[in-house]
Amino acid sequence: MYPELMIVPMREELTRLGIVELRTASQVDEVLSRKTGTTMVVVNSICGCAAGRMRPAVRIALEHSVRPDTAVSVFAGQDRDATERARTYFAGYPPSSPSIALFRDGALVYFLERHDIENRDAEDIAADLTASFDKFCTKTATAR
User: Which of 22, 49, 74, 108 is catalytic?
Assistant: First the structure.
């Protein structure tokens, strides 16, 4: 684990966007056990692809007219209990950080893994996210 002072800017890069940070397993359960609406979960990370690609992509995507009802984050390697609990909701996907999950009515409907993030620019990642928002974050959207 890194000293908290060192990662504050990485946390704030998401919280400034209105993303709520979940730091305990019970906070994760409280949010992800909801069975209505859409929720985006950002698995934040200290790695370079989070800083250079994922967090900027999230910022760009949240400027889109269609967005999830709720946006939360956990910080891999820092808030271990919260991150481990969040990953239990990502059935079928191995641990990946950074990553982004989208839930609709309590079901995982979209997952962007690290390999979908690294080596791509923020605009391309944001395009994938906004396409998922358009597909799953509207009242007429259907789960896959």
Answer: 49
